[in-house]
From TrEMBL:
Keywords: ATP-binding, Nucleotide-binding. InterPro entries: AAA+_ATPase (IPR003593), ABC_transporter-like_ATP-bd (IPR003439), P-loop_NTPase (IPR027417). Pfam families: ABC_tran. One of its GO terms (molecular function) is ATP hydrolysis activity. This is ABC transporter domain-containing protein. It comes from the Bacteria. SUPFAM superfamilies: P-loop containing nucleoside triphosphate hydrolases.
Length: 308
């Protein structure tokens, strides 16, 4: 097997003549948790489905766990776990029956014992006879993850796995992901949550079906080359109207009584202070540390690939 769990070049897919994934190159090393970020419709699910061998690319090439994306899809499907964006378990089956069904599909040996261990590991033993359709959002996702991992895959593809999960249940979910990764399993997880992005060793930012940036958190933060300031003022609405017109400011957002601005220019904070002062607005401008959410907003606003 190559040292990359996933390696694809030029992967392309259109639906009804509209590009969903556009000449995508990806290299995801084995054994890491990799976050897959991007706006709605940027092509995350389509990419994941092509990597799984569930959707055939129009063009490109690549391997998943060393298996060819086009010729060895059966081997890929046997060795990966895929958790779909919407709950794909059976609502009319109990928790145990869902696990039993999946373990039959994968011809798992010692089926009942494996199911018992899985129920225990995912804290679902007391729920095993409950219909999946009546589980809470958090438990449903935990069952979906259990179904995804029961056959001990080497690579797990999770498509927004915690979209309807409360913060506490999300922490439990990530605890299981860390335990799984510690066993050498590669995890690709798509998410819109920046706290989840913070938990990943490597990040891929996607927009309009293209990779905008790929690298570690530090690489992404250092390469973005953007500065952020917080502006406190009693006249926040007026300040917003003024600053909105200044081309030097790349992005402007309101957080309660604070405006946050970003710019590529290191002196944009001083300049903002001067402009507001000239307009008769009293404001305090302070520099703000740059984080992954800022990097996301910046990258999406300026779609050009950054090589790290
Ligand atoms: N089966 C399909 N038929 C037609 N268009 C599709 C199909 N699947 C995806 N698309 C289109 O391809 C583009 C990429 O969609 P995709 O679901 O991959 O994005 P995404 O990044 O997963 O979005 P989200 O964050 O909303 O889940 C979108 O414009 C979508 O409408
Ligand atoms: Mg999606």
């Amino acid at each position: 097997m190559s040292k990359f769990a996933i390696e694809v070049q030029g992967l392309t897919k259109s639906f009804n003549g509209k590009l969903a994934v556009d000449q995508l190159d990806l290299s995801i090393p084995e054994g890491i948790i990799c976050g897959f970020l991007g706006p709605n419709g940027s092509g995350k699910t389509t990419t994941i489905r092509m990597i799984c061998g569930l959707l055939k690319a129009d063009a490109g090439q690549g391997t998943c766990l060393g298996f060819d994306l086009f010729k060895e899809t059966r081997n890929i499907r046997k060795n990966i776990g895929y958790m779909t964006q919407k709950f794909s378990g059976y609502h009319d089956l109990t928790v145990r029956e869902n696990l039993s069904f999946i373990s039959r599909l994968f011809s798992i040996q010692n089926r009942e014992e494996t199911i018992d261990q899985t129920l225990e590991k995912f804290a679902l033993t007391t729920r095993q006879n409950q219909l999946a359709g009546y589980l809470s959002g958090g438990l449903k996702q935990r069952l979906a993850l259990a179904c995804c991992l029961i056959h001990q895959p080497k690579l797990v593809l999770l498509d927004e796995p915690t979209a309807s999960v409360d913060p506490s249940a999300r922490r439990d979910f990530w605890e299981i992901l860390y335990q799984t990764a510690a066993q050498g399993v590669t995890i690709l997880v798509s998410t819109h949550y920046m706290d989840e992005a913070n938990r990943c060793q490597e990040l891929i930012y996607l927009s309009n079906g293209r990779v905008l940036a790929q690298g570690s958190q530090q690489q992404i933060l250092h390469s973005s080359n953007i500065f952020i300031w917080n502006i406190y003022s009693q006249q926040i609405d007026y300040a917003y109207k003024i600053l909105k017109k200044i081309p030097l400011i790349q992005n402007i957002s309101i957080f309660d009584q604070t405006l946050q601005i970003s710019s590529k220019h290191p002196k944009a904070g001083d300049l903002t202070q001067m402009i507001l002062h000239k307009e008769g607005i009293f404001a305090t401008v302070t520099s703000h540390p740059f984080n992954l959410e800022d990097a996301y907003v910046h990258l999406i606003a300026q779609p050009k690939k950054i090589y790290l």
